[in-house]
Amino acid sequence: MTPPLMEIVNVCIDRLAAGETIEDCVRDYPDYADELRDMLGIGTLIGQLSPSLKETQLAQQRSRQQLASRMQEEKKTMMMHRPKRKRTQGRAGLLPMGIAALIALVAGIGIGVVGMQMSTASSVETVADPNVQLGPIPTMVPVITATPFDFEAIRPVYRPTEFLPTVVQPDNIFVLEGGLDDEVITSSPYIVTLDVVFPGQTDENVRISSVYSSSMPDLGGWTLSDDDGNSYTIPQMDAEQGVNYISIYTKAGIDDGQNFYMGFVEPIWQLDDLLTLTEPERGLTYRIRVEDSIESPWHLGDTPTPAPTVPPQDEYQLTATAIINDLTATAQK
C-alpha cells in the first residue's frame, strides 16, 4: 500500500537533510514523481534566494502560487485516476502551507531561514554607535507610594547604589603653578558628590553613592566640614576609582505599616550652606556652597534603576548637591 503524499514528503525531507538528492527520492516513489520533484525543487529554490527583502518577497509569492497551483492539479489528478483514495478538502487546503513550511524548516533552506538571514544582516548593519559609552547606570529606586502624614509633603525615597553617572570632565582639572614652596592648585568647574546624612554623628548615616572618576584626583581621605564643627572624612576608595560626586541625604523614617517616608527631619547640610573640603597631605582647602542639584547629571526626573543589594534600613532622601566651581587653594607648609 502506497503511503499518503504527506508521509512521503516527510521522508524525502529527512533524506535531503541527510545528503541525498531529489532524484534519489523521486526514484523510490514513481507514482508521485512529478509532485515530489516540484515540491522539493521549490523548497530548494527558496533556500537559494537572495536575502534582499524585495527579491525574497517576490520569490515567496511565486513559490506559493506555484505550489498552490501544483497541488490543485495534483488534487484533480488524484480524484480522476485514484477514485478509491480519500482526500479531504481540509488536508488538501493545508498542504501548500504545511509542505512548504516543513521543507523550509527541516531542510534548513526555506523561508524561515531566509527571513532570519535578513534579520541578522539588518542587525549587523545597525550596530550601536561605537562612540556611545556603556557603563554604570543610575542610581536610585523609589520605594515609597504613600505617607501617613501631609500628602503635600510626599517626596520619593531612593536607595543609593554603588555608582552614579558623572558629567564629562576637562583634562586639566588641577593645574600646578609655581614650585614646591608655594604650590597653587586651580580647579576647573566640576561636581563633587557623596552621600552625607547627619554628618558628625554616626558612620551608619553616611553612604558613598559615586566612586567613579577618570579625570580628577581621588578625594579619598579628604575632609568635608562646616563652620559648626560637623565633619565627615571621605573614605579611601580603590586606586582606579575616585569620589567625584557628593549628595546630601536625609535618612527616611518608617511608619507603622513599614512604609518608608521622608520623616520631616532636616539634614544638617542644606541648600546655600558653605562647606570646607580639606586635602589631608598639603592642607589645601576649598570652600563649597551647597547648591540645587538641577545641574547634576542625575536628577529626580530620570528613570530609576533597581538596586536590590541595598537593605531597606539604608533608605535615604536626596535633598541637595554640593558643587565646586572655579576654586583656588594654596598649600600651607
From TrEMBL:
<feature type="region of interest" description="Disordered">
    <location>
        <begin position="61"/>
        <end position="87"/>
    </location>
</feature>
<feature type="compositionally biased region" description="Basic residues">
    <location>
        <begin position="78"/>
        <end position="87"/>
    </location>
</feature>
<protein>
    <recommendedName>
        <fullName>LTD domain-containing protein</fullName>
    </recommendedName>
</protein>
<keyword id="KW-1133">Transmembrane helix</keyword>
<keyword id="KW-0472">Membrane</keyword>
<feature type="transmembrane region" description="Helical">
    <location>
        <begin position="92"/>
        <end position="116"/>
    </location>
</feature>
<keyword id="KW-0812">Transmembrane</keyword>
<feature type="compositionally biased region" description="Low complexity">
    <location>
        <begin position="61"/>
        <end position="70"/>
    </location>
</feature>
